[in-house]
Fold this sequence. Notes:
The protein is of the alpha/beta class. The protein has helices at residues 28-39, 55-63, 126-134, 149-154, 156-165, 173-180, 185-194, 235-249, 257-274, 281-285, 288-302; strands at residues 3-6, 10-15, 20-26, 43-49, 66-73, 80-85, 92-98, 118-121, 142-146, 168-172, 199-203, 209-212, 218-221. It is globular.
Amino acid sequence: xxxxxxxxxxxxxxxxxxxxxxxxxxxxxxxxxxxxxxxxxxxxxxxxxxxxxxxxxxxxxxxxxxxxxxxxxxxxxxxxxxxxxxxxxxxxxxxxxxxxxxxxxxxxxxxxxxxxxxxxxxxxxxxxxxxxxxxxxxxxxxxxxxxxxxxxxxxxxxxxxxxxxxxxxxxxxxxxxxxxxxxxxxxxxxxxxxxxxxxxxxxxxxxxxxxxxxxxxxxxxxxxxxxxxxxxxxxxxxxxxxxxxxxxxxxxxxxxxxxxxxxxxxxxxxxxxxxxxxxxxxxxxxxxxxxxxxxxxxxxxxxx
Length: 304
Ligand code: AMP
Protein backbone atom coordinates (compact mmCIF):
# COMPACT_ATOMS: atom_id res chain seq x y z
CA UNK A 1 0.00 0.00 0.00
CA UNK A 2 1.26 3.44 -1.02
CA UNK A 3 3.23 5.46 1.54
CA UNK A 4 3.64 9.19 0.92
CA UNK A 5 6.45 10.81 2.93
CA UNK A 6 6.71 14.60 2.96
CA UNK A 7 9.32 16.69 4.74
CA UNK A 8 12.77 18.18 4.37
CA UNK A 9 15.29 16.80 1.88
CA UNK A 10 18.56 18.34 2.93
CA UNK A 11 22.27 18.66 2.51
CA UNK A 12 23.78 18.06 5.95
CA UNK A 13 27.22 18.96 7.30
CA UNK A 14 27.77 17.00 10.49
CA UNK A 15 30.59 16.91 13.02
CA UNK A 16 30.68 14.29 15.78
CA UNK A 17 33.52 13.10 18.07
CA UNK A 18 34.11 10.40 15.42
CA UNK A 19 34.49 12.55 12.25
CA UNK A 20 33.49 15.68 10.39
CA UNK A 21 31.63 15.13 7.09
CA UNK A 22 29.93 17.46 4.64
CA UNK A 23 27.57 17.33 1.66
CA UNK A 24 25.74 14.41 3.22
CA UNK A 25 22.20 13.36 2.43
CA UNK A 26 19.98 14.68 5.21
CA UNK A 27 16.43 15.77 5.84
CA UNK A 28 13.55 14.31 7.76
CA UNK A 29 11.81 12.92 4.66
CA UNK A 30 14.98 11.34 3.23
CA UNK A 31 15.57 9.23 6.33
CA UNK A 32 11.89 8.40 6.80
CA UNK A 33 11.37 7.37 3.17
CA UNK A 34 14.46 5.18 3.08
CA UNK A 35 13.48 3.49 6.36
CA UNK A 36 9.90 2.91 5.16
CA UNK A 37 11.23 1.38 1.94
CA UNK A 38 13.15 -1.19 4.01
CA UNK A 39 9.81 -2.66 5.12
CA UNK A 40 7.18 -1.81 2.52
CA UNK A 41 6.53 -0.65 -1.05
CA UNK A 42 5.80 1.61 -2.82
CA UNK A 43 7.25 4.63 -1.01
CA UNK A 44 6.91 8.11 -2.53
CA UNK A 45 8.98 11.09 -1.40
CA UNK A 46 7.51 14.60 -1.36
CA UNK A 47 9.89 17.51 -0.88
CA UNK A 48 11.92 20.20 -2.59
CA UNK A 49 15.62 20.38 -3.48
CA UNK A 50 17.80 23.05 -5.04
CA UNK A 51 20.16 23.24 -8.00
CA UNK A 52 23.16 22.19 -5.85
CA UNK A 53 21.72 18.88 -4.65
CA UNK A 54 24.12 15.96 -5.20
CA UNK A 55 22.75 13.61 -7.86
CA UNK A 56 24.30 10.60 -6.09
CA UNK A 57 21.89 11.05 -3.14
CA UNK A 58 18.90 10.89 -5.48
CA UNK A 59 20.28 7.82 -7.23
CA UNK A 60 20.81 6.11 -3.89
CA UNK A 61 17.20 6.74 -2.81
CA UNK A 62 15.86 5.45 -6.13
CA UNK A 63 18.07 2.38 -5.94
CA UNK A 64 16.36 1.54 -2.63
CA UNK A 65 12.90 1.81 -4.18
CA UNK A 66 12.01 5.38 -3.15
CA UNK A 67 9.99 7.06 -5.92
CA UNK A 68 11.04 10.68 -6.51
CA UNK A 69 8.21 11.82 -8.80
CA UNK A 70 6.92 14.08 -6.00
CA UNK A 71 10.30 15.76 -5.47
CA UNK A 72 10.26 19.36 -6.67
CA UNK A 73 13.41 20.97 -8.07
CA UNK A 74 14.11 24.67 -7.61
CA UNK A 75 16.73 27.09 -8.96
CA UNK A 76 17.61 28.21 -5.44
CA UNK A 77 20.14 26.43 -3.19
CA UNK A 78 18.98 23.41 -1.21
CA UNK A 79 17.96 23.42 2.43
CA UNK A 80 21.22 22.90 4.34
CA UNK A 81 21.72 21.97 7.97
CA UNK A 82 25.06 22.16 9.79
CA UNK A 83 25.35 20.66 13.25
CA UNK A 84 27.76 19.24 15.78
CA UNK A 85 27.41 16.49 18.38
CA UNK A 86 29.43 16.64 21.56
CA UNK A 87 31.06 13.89 23.65
CA UNK A 88 27.62 12.90 24.93
CA UNK A 89 25.87 12.40 21.63
CA UNK A 90 22.49 13.35 23.10
CA UNK A 91 23.88 16.85 23.10
CA UNK A 92 23.71 18.63 19.73
CA UNK A 93 24.48 22.19 18.61
CA UNK A 94 22.96 23.51 15.38
CA UNK A 95 25.53 25.83 13.80
CA UNK A 96 23.58 26.87 10.75
CA UNK A 97 20.20 26.31 9.11
CA UNK A 98 20.02 27.65 5.55
CA UNK A 99 16.30 27.48 4.79
CA UNK A 100 16.74 28.37 1.09
CA UNK A 101 14.20 26.37 -0.97
CA UNK A 102 11.98 25.77 2.07
CA UNK A 103 11.41 29.49 2.61
CA UNK A 104 8.46 29.94 0.24
CA UNK A 105 7.69 26.31 -0.44
CA UNK A 106 4.08 25.59 -1.35
CA UNK A 107 3.56 21.84 -1.06
CA UNK A 108 2.03 20.22 -4.13
CA UNK A 109 0.90 16.61 -3.92
CA UNK A 110 0.87 15.09 -7.44
CA UNK A 111 -2.64 13.85 -8.37
CA UNK A 112 -1.50 10.23 -8.64
CA UNK A 113 -0.18 10.27 -5.04
CA UNK A 114 -3.13 12.03 -3.41
CA UNK A 115 -4.92 8.76 -2.64
CA UNK A 116 -2.03 7.32 -0.56
CA UNK A 117 -3.47 5.45 2.44
CA UNK A 118 -0.33 6.02 4.55
CA UNK A 119 0.73 9.64 4.96
CA UNK A 120 3.88 10.75 6.77
CA UNK A 121 4.20 14.42 7.72
CA UNK A 122 7.88 14.29 8.62
CA UNK A 123 9.51 17.28 10.29
CA UNK A 124 8.82 20.48 8.35
CA UNK A 125 6.93 23.70 9.06
CA UNK A 126 3.43 22.87 10.36
CA UNK A 127 1.98 25.08 7.61
CA UNK A 128 3.59 22.76 5.04
CA UNK A 129 2.26 19.74 6.93
CA UNK A 130 -1.25 21.21 6.74
CA UNK A 131 -0.87 22.01 3.02
CA UNK A 132 0.22 18.45 2.32
CA UNK A 133 -2.56 16.89 4.36
CA UNK A 134 -5.27 19.00 2.68
CA UNK A 135 -4.30 17.43 -0.63
CA UNK A 136 -4.33 13.84 0.64
CA UNK A 137 -7.76 12.58 -0.29
CA UNK A 138 -7.91 8.83 0.55
CA UNK A 139 -11.19 8.12 2.34
CA UNK A 140 -9.40 5.73 4.68
CA UNK A 141 -5.89 6.76 5.61
CA UNK A 142 -3.45 6.63 8.50
CA UNK A 143 -1.58 9.89 9.11
CA UNK A 144 1.53 10.25 11.26
CA UNK A 145 3.42 13.46 12.04
CA UNK A 146 6.69 14.47 13.62
CA UNK A 147 7.77 17.91 14.77
CA UNK A 148 10.61 19.77 16.51
CA UNK A 149 11.15 22.33 19.27
CA UNK A 150 11.41 25.20 16.77
CA UNK A 151 7.77 24.74 15.64
CA UNK A 152 6.49 24.49 19.21
CA UNK A 153 7.92 27.99 19.68
CA UNK A 154 7.32 29.74 16.35
CA UNK A 155 4.24 27.95 14.94
CA UNK A 156 2.37 26.75 18.01
CA UNK A 157 -1.09 27.48 16.66
CA UNK A 158 -0.53 25.70 13.33
CA UNK A 159 1.03 22.77 15.17
CA UNK A 160 -2.13 22.45 17.27
CA UNK A 161 -4.12 22.42 13.99
CA UNK A 162 -1.93 19.57 12.72
CA UNK A 163 -2.54 17.58 15.89
CA UNK A 164 -6.29 17.71 15.39
CA UNK A 165 -5.95 16.11 11.94
CA UNK A 166 -3.53 13.24 12.47
CA UNK A 167 -3.76 9.71 13.89
CA UNK A 168 -0.30 9.47 15.43
CA UNK A 169 2.21 12.00 16.74
CA UNK A 170 5.88 11.14 17.16
CA UNK A 171 7.81 13.57 19.35
CA UNK A 172 11.03 13.42 21.33
CA UNK A 173 11.05 13.57 25.11
CA UNK A 174 12.33 17.15 25.49
CA UNK A 175 9.73 18.43 23.04
CA UNK A 176 6.98 16.37 24.70
CA UNK A 177 7.80 18.00 28.03
CA UNK A 178 7.91 21.48 26.52
CA UNK A 179 4.74 21.07 24.46
CA UNK A 180 2.66 19.55 27.24
CA UNK A 181 3.99 21.70 30.08
CA UNK A 182 4.96 18.85 32.39
CA UNK A 183 8.19 17.03 33.17
CA UNK A 184 6.36 13.76 33.86
CA UNK A 185 6.49 11.85 30.58
CA UNK A 186 3.41 9.74 31.31
CA UNK A 187 1.36 12.86 31.93
CA UNK A 188 2.98 14.46 28.89
CA UNK A 189 1.87 11.55 26.67
CA UNK A 190 -1.66 11.81 28.01
CA UNK A 191 -1.81 15.57 27.53
CA UNK A 192 -0.60 15.21 23.95
CA UNK A 193 -3.36 12.64 23.29
CA UNK A 194 -5.84 15.21 24.56
CA UNK A 195 -4.65 17.62 21.84
CA UNK A 196 -6.05 15.36 19.10
CA UNK A 197 -4.13 12.28 17.95
CA UNK A 198 -5.39 8.85 19.03
CA UNK A 199 -1.82 7.63 19.40
CA UNK A 200 1.34 9.33 20.68
CA UNK A 201 4.89 8.03 20.63
CA UNK A 202 7.46 9.77 22.83
CA UNK A 203 11.01 9.00 21.66
CA UNK A 204 13.61 8.52 24.38
CA UNK A 205 16.76 8.41 22.22
CA UNK A 206 19.13 5.70 23.44
CA UNK A 207 16.42 4.48 25.85
CA UNK A 208 13.76 3.66 23.24
CA UNK A 209 10.21 4.97 23.13
CA UNK A 210 6.88 5.18 24.96
CA UNK A 211 3.68 4.34 23.08
CA UNK A 212 0.38 5.79 24.28
CA UNK A 213 -2.84 4.48 22.71
CA UNK A 214 -6.58 4.77 23.17
CA UNK A 215 -8.22 3.94 26.51
CA UNK A 216 -5.01 3.99 28.51
CA UNK A 217 -3.17 1.48 26.30
CA UNK A 218 0.57 1.82 26.97
CA UNK A 219 3.79 0.14 25.81
CA UNK A 220 7.43 0.75 26.69
CA UNK A 221 9.94 -0.18 23.98
CA UNK A 222 13.69 -0.24 24.61
CA UNK A 223 16.44 0.60 22.15
CA UNK A 224 18.99 -1.73 20.61
CA UNK A 225 22.09 -1.55 22.85
CA UNK A 226 24.69 0.07 20.58
CA UNK A 227 28.34 0.02 21.69
CA UNK A 228 29.46 2.65 19.22
CA UNK A 229 27.65 5.58 17.70
CA UNK A 230 29.06 7.50 14.75
CA UNK A 231 26.24 9.96 14.02
CA UNK A 232 22.73 9.93 15.51
CA UNK A 233 21.34 12.45 12.98
CA UNK A 234 18.07 11.22 11.54
CA UNK A 235 17.48 8.46 14.08
CA UNK A 236 14.06 9.91 14.93
CA UNK A 237 13.11 10.24 11.26
CA UNK A 238 14.24 6.68 10.63
CA UNK A 239 12.10 5.55 13.55
CA UNK A 240 9.09 7.31 12.00
CA UNK A 241 9.69 5.71 8.59
CA UNK A 242 10.17 2.26 10.09
CA UNK A 243 6.97 2.61 12.08
CA UNK A 244 4.86 3.49 9.02
CA UNK A 245 6.65 0.88 6.88
CA UNK A 246 5.67 -1.77 9.39
CA UNK A 247 1.99 -0.70 9.41
CA UNK A 248 1.83 -0.37 5.61
CA UNK A 249 3.36 -3.82 5.12
CA UNK A 250 0.31 -5.17 6.96
CA UNK A 251 -2.16 -2.80 5.27
CA UNK A 252 -3.08 -1.55 8.74
CA UNK A 253 -4.83 1.81 8.19
CA UNK A 254 -6.73 1.16 11.43
CA UNK A 255 -3.98 -0.64 13.36
CA UNK A 256 -4.56 -2.72 16.47
CA UNK A 257 -2.44 -1.90 19.52
CA UNK A 258 -0.42 -5.06 18.84
CA UNK A 259 0.37 -3.84 15.33
CA UNK A 260 1.41 -0.48 16.78
CA UNK A 261 3.73 -2.22 19.26
CA UNK A 262 5.38 -4.18 16.44
CA UNK A 263 5.71 -0.97 14.43
CA UNK A 264 7.41 0.86 17.30
CA UNK A 265 9.86 -2.01 17.80
CA UNK A 266 10.74 -2.14 14.10
CA UNK A 267 11.19 1.64 14.00
CA UNK A 268 13.49 1.41 16.98
CA UNK A 269 15.61 -1.32 15.36
CA UNK A 270 15.95 0.58 12.08
CA UNK A 271 16.93 3.73 13.99
CA UNK A 272 19.80 1.81 15.61
CA UNK A 273 21.32 1.21 12.17
CA UNK A 274 21.16 4.93 11.33
CA UNK A 275 23.30 5.80 14.37
CA UNK A 276 26.16 3.50 13.33
CA UNK A 277 27.48 5.61 10.49
CA UNK A 278 27.09 9.09 9.03
CA UNK A 279 23.94 10.08 7.15
CA UNK A 280 22.02 7.10 5.74
CA UNK A 281 25.10 4.94 5.06
CA UNK A 282 24.48 2.26 7.65
CA UNK A 283 20.74 2.18 6.98
CA UNK A 284 21.48 1.70 3.27
CA UNK A 285 23.74 -1.24 4.08
CA UNK A 286 21.29 -2.92 6.46
CA UNK A 287 19.93 -5.88 4.52
CA UNK A 288 16.84 -7.94 5.37
CA UNK A 289 18.87 -10.50 7.32
CA UNK A 290 20.73 -7.83 9.36
CA UNK A 291 17.36 -6.40 10.29
CA UNK A 292 15.67 -9.69 11.14
CA UNK A 293 18.68 -10.91 13.16
CA UNK A 294 18.68 -7.72 15.21
CA UNK A 295 14.91 -7.93 15.65
CA UNK A 296 15.10 -11.52 16.91
CA UNK A 297 17.93 -10.65 19.29
CA UNK A 298 16.03 -7.63 20.54
CA UNK A 299 13.05 -9.83 21.35
CA UNK A 300 15.35 -12.17 23.26
CA UNK A 301 16.86 -9.39 25.41
CA UNK A 302 13.53 -7.64 25.98
CA UNK A 303 11.37 -10.48 27.31
CA UNK A 304 11.34 -11.97 30.76
P1 AMP B 1 16.76 14.39 13.71
O1 AMP B 1 18.16 13.95 13.99
O2 AMP B 1 15.77 13.26 13.73
O3 AMP B 1 16.35 15.57 14.52
O4 AMP B 1 16.72 14.89 12.19
C1 AMP B 1 17.81 15.51 11.61
C2 AMP B 1 17.45 15.98 10.20
O5 AMP B 1 16.49 17.03 10.29
C3 AMP B 1 18.67 16.53 9.49
O6 AMP B 1 19.01 15.68 8.42
C4 AMP B 1 18.27 17.93 9.05
O7 AMP B 1 18.56 18.16 7.69
C5 AMP B 1 16.78 18.00 9.30
N1 AMP B 1 16.38 19.32 9.85
C6 AMP B 1 17.05 20.11 10.72
N2 AMP B 1 16.38 21.26 10.96
C7 AMP B 1 15.22 21.19 10.22
C8 AMP B 1 14.11 22.08 10.02
N3 AMP B 1 14.03 23.28 10.62
N4 AMP B 1 13.11 21.67 9.20
C9 AMP B 1 13.18 20.47 8.60
N5 AMP B 1 14.19 19.61 8.73
C10 AMP B 1 15.22 19.95 9.52
